[in-house]
Write a structure and sequence with these properties.
Layout lengths: L1 E7 L6 H14 L3 E6 L14 H12 L5 E4 L11 H11 L4 E7 H5 L7 H7 L1 E5 L4 E3 L2 E3 L7 H12 L3 E4 L8 H9 L9 H6 L2 H9 L18 H11 L2 H20 L4 H10 L8 H10 L6 H5 L4 H12 L6 H8 L10 H12 L9 H8 L3 H18 L6 H17 L4
Helix pairs in contact: 2-9, 3-5, 11-12, 11-17, 12-16, 12-17, 15-16, 16-17, 17-19, 18-19, 19-20
Bound molecules: 2'-deoxyguanosine-5'-diphosphate and fe (iii) ion (FE) (2 copies).
The site of 2'-deoxyguanosine-5'-diphosphate has 16 residues, from helix 19.
């Protein structure tokens, strides 16, 4: 079989990638095209910290239903940086009967000699360059930056490495991931997608970006240059929280970030929710009632009987009023973090679970199992937490908020429906 490989970080994948894949398949008569999603350089990450799982997911969404196109998570599930020469060597050895075409951008063709072991790559695969900026000068295609045409470069490389180098010419490719990230990051209103984005991104990818809040730089005051001040807020919290509570807070923030990565949610936003979730925890009970009365926050019967429940509602209020958070998702997640609520949004559910499993917790039973479940199935972890919390509240004869029970019933049903006997 003739197989094309299109490697990249796909941060995010866009219609230009799909176009190149299909065009290359057509022009080279390929049987298959594989999107090879790059892993993360250790300690470096990719722009905007988009997790590899999120990038991989977007690729899968973008190619779903396209005949002959699939994706490879080979490099995603790697701890070290995978060099192209290694991957292509492995591929060729694993599939000796197939012929591989490695698709690269024109700039990469001109930089080919600086890749790790270009001679090994050239030995195993045909390198195919796709032109972006092609300038017609005296009838010849000249690359602006290098002064010679890609065809000439390909010829020179063929001679030097004794390999196959092809160039494909097509109309100019208008999109780039970095341009798309810029447009997304500069949105003033997160639901406001300019038409250009609908043109550049597959609809399902756009929906995913919106839902998981990727490429969303959130500000304390949206539209201003002020971004979330993690260091400053951490310092403030250190001052207002008891030592143990502060340490717990940092553990929750880290756990939030880890679960955000696992479930492809914006990591910064999730971390911010974790950092602020218990900001009102060490305020005296009278103050809870005062703050609620002064700001028209309803106090439920359960909250009257167990006032510490109010630290969630008051914490949400202070996140806005004191810490300047305008993000309604963060504020909501904080407000429901103690009882949960049925059908939580992903951010609220990650915060709810992180609060329970963060590494400094050690008293609750089944912690090891719940921690394990959290990274496997978030709804299962939520259900386990609610079940154990209700047991504990009954044992200690504490006032039970009906919201906790409702939430429990909701997640119990989700898990029950999922279980199969055979
Ligand atoms: O603030 P944290 O201690 O970090 O965690 P949290 O906000 O989840 O609060 C935990 C406590 O809240 C825990 O002891 C269980 C309790 N809780 C959860 N749901 C209810 C509840 N307490 C009462 N009285 N009623 C509830 O429905
Ligand atoms: Fe809390
Ligand atoms: Fe907490």
């Amino acid at each position: 079989m003739k197989i094309g490989i299109l490697g990249g970080t796909f941060n995010p994948i866009h219609n230009g990638h799909i176009f190149i894949a299909k065009k290359a398949m057509e022009l080279l008569h390929l049987d298959k095209m594989i999107f090879l999603v790059a892993g993360e350089p250790p300690h470096k990450g990719v722009a905007e910290n988009t997790s590899r799982f999120a990038r991989n997911e977007m690729v899968k969404l973008a190619i779903a239903g396209s005949e002959g196109i699939s994706s490879s998570d080979f490099e995603i599930f790697s701890v070290k940086k995978d060099y192209t020469y290694k991957t292509v060597e492995l591929l060729s050895k694993e599939y000796p009967l197939d012929e591989f075409f490695f698709i690269i951008g024109e700039d990469s063709l001109f930089a080919f000699e600086s890749w790790m072991h270009p001679e090994i790559i050239a030995k195993y695969v045909t390198i195919v360059s796709f032109g972006r900026k092609i300038k017609y000068d005296n009838g010849a295609k000249i690359n602006d930056a290098y002064g010679i045409s890609p065809e000439e470069k390909a010829k020179a490389l063929s001679l030097k490495y004794q390999g196959n180098f092809l160039t494909l010419s097509t109309e100019e490719l208008p999109y780039s991931s970095s341009e798309i990230r810029d447009i997304l990051l500069k949105r003033e209103d997160i639901d406001d997608f300019p038409d250009s984005l609908h043109e550049m991104l597959p609809e399902k990818v756009l929906d995913f970006i919106l839902e998981r809040r990727l490429y969303e730089k959130f500000a304390l005051i949206r539209g201003s240059e002020r971004t979330f001040d993690f260091d400053g807020i951490t310092e403030t919290l250190k001052g207002v929280l008891k030592k143990k509570r502060f340490i717990h807070t940092l553990g929750v923030a880290d756990t939030c970030a880890a679960l955000a990565e696992r479930y492809c949610l914006n990591e910064e936003i999730t971390r911010a929710a974790g950092l602020l979730h218990d900001n009102a925890k060490n305020i005296p009970t009278e103050s809870y009632f005062e703050i609620c009365a002064e700001n028209d926050l309803d106090v439920t019967e359960a909250e009257k009987k167990a006032p510490y429940l109010l630290h969630a509602k008051v914490g949400a209020f202070l996140a806005k009023a004191k810490y300047g958070v305008v993000d309604s998702g963060i504020i909501h997640a904080i407000s429901v973090h103690t009882t949960g609520e049925p059908a939580m949004d992903l951010l609220s559910e990650i915060l709810f679970v992180s609060d329970y499993i963060e590494p400094n917790r050690n008293k609750a039973k089944n912690l090891a199992e719940i921690r394990e479940a959290a990274f496997y199935d978030l709804n299962l972890a939520t259900y386990m937490i609610l079940s154990d919390t209700l047991d504990y509240l009954r044992e200690t004869k504490a006032e039970i908020d009906e919201k906790t029970e409702e939430t429990y019933r909701y997640y119990k049903k989700i898990i029950d429906d999922k279980r199969t006997l055979y």
